[in-house]
Design a protein that fits this description.
Length: about 475
């Protein structure tokens, strides 16, 4: 019966996806948040696949601390201004030029921010001078020492000028806590903490349900979040039903998207101690079968529904598992995947790592980029981070021509070549990837022990060790990804 149900769902999806192909481009990105008591080593984990469409570029930057002159303003994209802080923290920045909501960050305190687009019902929303969109996560990362502080900062800005996009869920973690902050066009938002022993999965719909704003340990949000939904006719207090943010504010198109449902369903069943049917009500968060290592969430990020009824064909759909009517976790639009490993018992420079797989996590190895690195290899960046921010929205008629030597194109070309004959090549590709990653994992404890011993006496020397180590691995991954290898 279940197999028949899945077949009927898949057929329905095929019809609907053809009809709604343009709407589906809004449903991309995928995240996992893991509390520190749910991991094998006590780290908080934030994992993310960034999905975007078209000929794109990903730049890596390491931005230092800055002090700013009194009266300095931040110029927002839509014309508004916000006062700049006197000092802004340093961070690692994954930038996608031209895009409003695709950048990811980790700052010097280990605070890590990324996001997933979540369409809301809101079509109006109060905005002051165009509101804020792109710059919101940047401000969080520049000013916050914790995930909760980042949410409070963002909430104050949204309360002041309004949020310019339909809806979005920001995934924010630090070495102590993990949070989801869901925002709605205009001046409404809510945030919920993931319990330390729980895991949360976020596709491209809101996942926060019942809320309790009196419980400020676990919730934050707009004071009128329920009243506004009632005013708009999205919630009826007389119904006897408890207020549910997800159903009140979420767009039916995103809540009912089979690509969203399928990704959450399969990730749940890969990690949860309880197994779910496709049509079940999914939880906001859950307990995993076992405590999770970073390798466990890396495996989820590279998944295409292998072993389920949603897998298209054992031969990977004539060669490519990424082009399918139901969006995969690892999909054709992946630009990068990362796993943030955030450990509170080590200095942040060593304890917080962005494990990044450029382009596709199913074929590229995850490389550790330590928070304490001083710089990025020239092959992965375009140099000046100040200019990068100033030129972020500059029109790039041919971004490839402007950056031919960039490492990102090596990873793009490699992924496209693999997709031409995925079924026949993936086993050998995966073997090389596993060997490379295994070597890194096996050396991690010893390497970090050496760095920590140096760090206690000479932090500057230790940070140079981290920089050299990460750079060598990044260059090695680049070399192995060139088409002649």
């Amino acid at each position: 019966m279940k197999k028949l149900l899945i077949k009927l769902i898949c057929f329905t999806v095929l019809i609907l996806s053809i009809k709604n192909i343009y709407a589906q481009t809004e449903f991309n990105c995928f995240s996992i948040l893991v509390g520190k008591k749910a991991t094998v080593d006590g780290s908080t984990i934030l994992a993310h696949n960034e999905d975007d469409y078209g000929k794109l570029l990903v730049d890596w930057y390491k931005v230092p601390r800055f002090t700013h002159e009194p009266g300095t303003k931040i110029e927002l994209k839509n014309g508004g201004q916000i006062d700049q802080a006197n000092e802004t923290y340093g961070f690692i920045w994954l930038e996608m030029p031209g895009f409003d909501f695709s950048d990811s960050y980790m700052n010097e305190w280990g605070v890590t921010v990324t996001s997933d687009g979540c369409q809301s019902k809101e079509t109006e929303g109060e905005l002051i001078n165009g509101g804020i969109g792109y710059y919101l996560r940047r401000i969080m990362i520049e000013r916050a020492k914790s995930a909760k502080e980042a949410i409070k900062i963002a909430g104050e800005i949204i309360d002041s000028v309004g949020y310019s996009y339909s809806g979005r869920s920001y995934c924010i973690a630090d070495p102590e806590q993990a949070w989801i902050m869901s925002v709605v066009k205009g001046k409404h938002w809510v945030a919920q903490r993931i319990a330390d022993d729980q895991v949360a999965i976020i596709p491209n719909y809101y996942t926060i349900k019942e809320i309790d704003l009196i419980d400020t340990v676990n919730f934050l949000g707009s004071a009128d979040i329920v009243d506004y939904a009632t005013q708009k006719g999205w919630y009826d207090p007389e119904s006897g039903k408890e207020f549910n943010f997800r159903t009140a504010y979420g767009s039916p198109a995103s809540l009912n998207s089979m690509g969203n449902i399928a990704r959450k369903w399969h990730a749940l069943n890969l990690l949860s101690e309880k197994q779910y049917d496709f049509s079940d009500e999914f939880p906001f968060s859950f307990k995993s079968q076992n405590k999770l290592a970073i390798q466990d969430v890396m495996l989820v990020l590279q998944n295409h529904y292998e072993g389920t009824q949603l897998e298209t064909h054992p031969d990977y759909n004539a060669g490519n598992p990424h082009e399918n009517v139901i969006t995969r976790i690892c999909s054709s639009s992946n630009q990068y995947g990362f796993v943030a490993q955030l450990r509170n018992w080590l200095p942040t420079d060593i304890g917080s790592i962005l494990w990044i797989a450029p382009r596709r996590p199913c074929t590229q190895p995850f490389i550790p980029w330590y928070c304490g690195i001083n710089s990025i290899p020239n092959e992965y960046t375009r140099g000046d981070y100040v200019e990068a921010l100033e030129q972020h929205f500059a029109i790039n008629e041919n971004i490839y021509e402007q950056s031919k030597s960039h490492a990102f194109w090596v990873f793009v070309n490699r992924s496209e070549e693999i997709d031409k004959n995925y079924g026949n090549s993936i086993n050998e590709i995966r073997k090389k990837k596993i060997v490379f990653e295994k070597e890194i994992f096996e050396k991690q404890v010893a390497f970090e022990g050496e760095v920590l011993a140096v760090y206690k006496k000479n932090p500057k020397k230790a940070k140079k060790m981290l920089t050299n180590y990460t750079s060598k691995l990044a260059i090695k991954a680049l070399s192995l990804s060139k088409l002649n290898n």
